């Protein structure tokens, strides 16, 4: 992607008013005042963890694109660097709070080794077995704030912890201001890829969503695993029912869309094969 195409793609994405709004001025100092009020109400040990990693002179994040070379048209994956921002300390703390809940999901895959360990015991699969992968399109930006925060409440059983987690996550989600060139923006939907808590937040949202869907659906995959937005399924109920499963899963949430690939012999899942 050359410089001209890069800038055009960035402006194309940033013009989507469902996700971003352009700002006339930098709100960082106002956000700093809001954070100070929130932090004062927290226990001292949490205050220390957040403030130690929060810059004294915060600045807007930096927007950039990572080209998706494997996607048609070579679209860019939007990244907003959290380094030096007002949310960096809160997001780092929430990453540590959310991680134990994220990795406890039945579908959770940590890495390649973990994936291989979980499938190595599967032997003598039926002849009609279908291997399928599903990819959630633009997961991070398509998590509505209310739904993501509700997923945290559904996941964390202790009310005090859940209340604190949703309050701090909400601050990160709603104070993600950034620059591209000379222009200032605010992300108004989803979470930014580039903030520390984003993978755990997305994992919790997807775990909550998939469990509610799987519990409501009469046919179950023989195996269902997920690495953030990449899903691997072993299906033994036939082609037609798999297509219906995919359709119903797509219909389950208004902003979550899944593309599917399948094979009777081999499948490419994430970066594993």
From TrEMBL:
Q: Which Pfam families match?
A: RVT_1 (PF00078)
Q: InterPro entries in the record, alphabetically?
A: RT_dom (IPR000477)
**Top-level division of the source organism's lineage:** Eukaryota
Where the record annotates domain Reverse transcriptase, the positions are 47-273
Q: Which PANTHER family match?
A: REVERSE TRANSCRIPTASE, REVERSE TRANSCRIPTASE DOMAIN-CONTAINING PROTEIN
The protein's name in its UniProt record:
Reverse transcriptase domain-containing protein
Protein's organism: Podarcis lilfordi (Lilford's wall lizard)
């Amino acid at each position: 992607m050359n410089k001209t195409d890069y800038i055009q793609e960035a402006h194309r994405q940033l013009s989507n008013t469902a996700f971003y709004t352009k700002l006339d001025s930098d709100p960082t100092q106002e956000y700093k005042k809001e954070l100070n009020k929130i932090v004062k109400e927290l226990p001292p040990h949490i205050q220390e963890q957040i403030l130690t990693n929060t810059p004294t002179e915060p600045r807007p994040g930096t927007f950039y694109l990572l080209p998706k070379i494997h996607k048609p048209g070579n679209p860019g994956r939007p990244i907003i660097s959290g380094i030096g921002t007002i949310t960096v300390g809160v997001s780092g703390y929430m990453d540590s709070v959310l991680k134990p809940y994220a990795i406890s999901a039945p579908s959770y895959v940590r890495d390649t080794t973990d994936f291989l360990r979980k499938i190595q015991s599967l032997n003598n699969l039926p002849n009609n077995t279908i291997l399928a992968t599903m990819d959630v399109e633009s997961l991070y930006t398509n998590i509505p704030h209310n739904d993501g925060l509700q997923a945290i409440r559904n996941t964390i059983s202790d009310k005090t912890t859940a209340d604190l987690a949703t309050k701090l996550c909400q601050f990160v989600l709603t104070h993600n201001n950034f620059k591209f060139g000379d222009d200032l923006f605010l992300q108004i939907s989803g979470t930014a890829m580039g903030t520390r808590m984003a993978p755990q937040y997305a994992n919790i949202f997807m775990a909550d969503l998939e469990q509610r869907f799987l519990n409501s659906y009469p046919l179950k995959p023989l195996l269902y695993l997920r690495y953030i937005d990449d899903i691997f399924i072993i299906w033994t109920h036939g082609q037609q029912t798999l297509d219906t499963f995919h359709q119903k899963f797509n219909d389950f949430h208004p902003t979550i869309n899944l593309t599917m690939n399948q094979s009777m012999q081999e499948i490419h899942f994430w970066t594993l094969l």
